[in-house]
Design goal:
The strands form two sheets. Strands 2, 4, 5, 6, 9, 10 and 11 form a seven-stranded mixed β-sheet that branches. Strands 1-3-8-7 form a four-stranded antiparallel β-sheet, with no helix packed on it. By secondary structure, it is mainly beta. The protein is built from no helices and eleven strands. Strand 5 and strand 6 form a beta hairpin. The radius of gyration is 13 Å and the shape is globular.
Length: 121
């Protein structure tokens, strides 16, 4: 059984930074990858970034390239978010997936955290 707990969300002004954390427990290393998703009000959930289980590969959505960085240290997954924009306002979720090629598609994710709110004004 896998458990994911996100933290680090908050309210910041445009141009600011936040670092999200996802504390994991259970067998996350057998999953192909770990990723961050987000869902803004009235919008569908979308993939933000993913890191492979071996921590050797990363993937990013075009809208965060150059601003966000995903990393993994032991059982914790991080999402460093810099130069935040109002359009980044959303609930951010950590998830596992067994499909590296479909990392950004929510329906291919297995386990989800409960999310952490990020608000950029």
């Amino acid at each position: 059984h896998v458990q994911l707990v996100e933290s680090g969300g908050g309210s910041v002004q445009a141009g600011g930074s936040l670092r999200l954390s996802c504390d994991t427990s259970g067998d996350t290393y057998s999953r192909t990858c770990m990723g961050w998703f987000r869902q803004a009000p009235g919008k569908e959930r979308e993939g933000v970034a993913a890191v492979s289980s071996g921590n050797f590969n990363w993937q990013y959505a075009d809208f965060v390239k150059g601003r966000f960085t995903i990393s993994r240290e032991g059982p914790t997954i991080y999402l460093q978010m810099n130069n935040l924009e109002p359009d980044d306002t959303a609930v951010y979720y950590c998830a596992t997936s067994t499909h590296w090629g479909k990392w950004s598609i929510p329906s291919f994710a297995e386990y989800w955290g409960h999310g952490t709110q990020v608000t950029v004004s």
